[in-house]
Every structure is written in C-alpha cells, then in structure tokens.
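Good morning N.,

You mentioned wanting to compare the apo and holo forms, so I went ahead and generated the holo version with magnesium ion. This is what I fed in:
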Amino acid sequence: MIKVRGLTKSFGKTNVLNGIDVDIAKGEVVVVIGPSGSGKSTFLRCLNLLEAPTGGEIEFEGKEITGSGVNINVLRQSMGMVFQQFNLFPHKTVMQNITLAPIGVRNTPREEAERIGIELLRRVGLEDKRDAYPNRLSGGQKQRVAIARALAMRPHVMLFDEPTSALDPEMVGEVLDVMKSLAREGMTMVIVTHEMGFAREVGDRLLFIDGGVIVEQGNPRDIFSAPQHPRTQEFLSKVL
Ligand code: ADP
Ligand code: MG
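and this is what came out, ligand included:
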C-alpha cells in the first residue's frame, strides 16, 4: 500500500530524515518507536505530504505521490491522521467536527454524513456526546472523537502520531482499545507511540528510528525480547 525509497527531509541545514526505505502492506499495523527528535513525526508527516520530502520517493496505492501533478487533497482524504493534541474545532459540536469534511469536501448530504457520524460515535463509545462541545469532553473522549472524525472520510490508512501522549494515564486504555479494534478490522495503520505494551500486542511490525534512519525493524516481540542493534538495546533498556 505504501512504498518508501530513500526518503530524506531537511529543514535548512538540519537533516532530519536520512534515507528511509520501508514497505507497508494493506492491513498491516506498523508501530514506530525511537528517541525524541529522531524524526518519527517528520516521517509520518512526509507520508501524507504534510511535509514536502527533500528527496526520495513515496508510492501510495501504486502511485508516486512525490512527483508533480499529485492532488494532495485527494491523497489526504485517503490517509486519516490523528495527532497528540486532538486538534478538534473548539466552536463546533462533536457531530459538526465529524461531519465537516464529509459535507464540505466530499459533498456528502448532511443526513448521510450524520448517519455515518452516529455509527462512528457508536464505534468509539460516544453516541451520547454528539451535541457536546470539545471543552466538555475528557482528553480520552476528545481523542476518540478525533479518531471518529478521521474515519469519517473513509481513509485507506490511518496515521497516528503519539495519540495517547497528552492523556492522563487512566484515559490511555480507552483510546488504545479503539485502535486495537481498528487493527482487528483490518485497517492499515502507522502508529508512533511510546506505549510499548500496545506495540508488542498489536504491532505486526516495529520500526526503531534513530537519527532519521530505520536502525532496526522486525516483529515487535522479537525486538523487545532480543534487540539486535546497540542503539535499539540502549533505547529499550531505558523505556521497558
Ligand atoms: P520526533 O517526532 O521523533 O520527536 P521530529 O520529527 O518531530 O522528531 O523532529 C526531528 C527533528 O526535526 C528535531 O530536531 C526537530 O527540531 C526538527 N524539526 C521538525 N520539524 C521542524 C520544522 N518544521 N522546522 C525545523 N525543524 C524541524
Ligand atoms: Mg514526534
């Protein structure tokens, strides 16, 4: 579904990604871990062109998206993204947050968008919050709305950038549970996370990024029990 070759990204003189090669298959759950500042967010943001890569190639569903003539808006509709900081629209209700893009970008009729919205809210356990404003929700509830909002565009892949890092500990589980059920339903997902238990349980593959390259990758259970690279060993010794 996604093929990345020689991906580089620099900000001025700072080289953040230094040649990333990876293939992500349909239905695969890829978990990305690595130290702060190693380029994890930049990698994710390059996948849906929130950042323009400096070099290399990205193919998505068989089409090169790093060339010219790519419709970035259509691409982003196929890739849902969930951020650490939720990014809900504060002056819109939960239902308005969820239906804004389907109605405004896809021209979905309001009744249909709301019918799908209710379905999605049921899926994330928040049917009763459709008319609430974000400031009345807990962090975990906001993040579940953000996931429902991303799903409303029927994406083919979901990108998560530390979706539970801003949450109080008691709310982490409810968000991870929604992500687990998405994984079970076969959603293709790329997830940057510090939740090592979740990575081990749900990840089909783990990427350890350091210094803007994939230092090690493989089955999460294998890497957690026997990391091969000294940098992976050092990182895991601090976080496990
Ligand atoms: P991670 O998500 O692994 O913590 P990031 O991808 O956010 O790392 O950042 C990697 C490096 O790139 C950091 O040194 C960060 O300061 C730098 N960086 C990220 N975004 C920008 C930007 N828009 N402008 C300049 N530097 C950036
Ligand atoms: Mg980051």
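The first strand starts at residue 2 and ends at 11.

Happy to go through it together on a call whenever suits you.

Best,
F.
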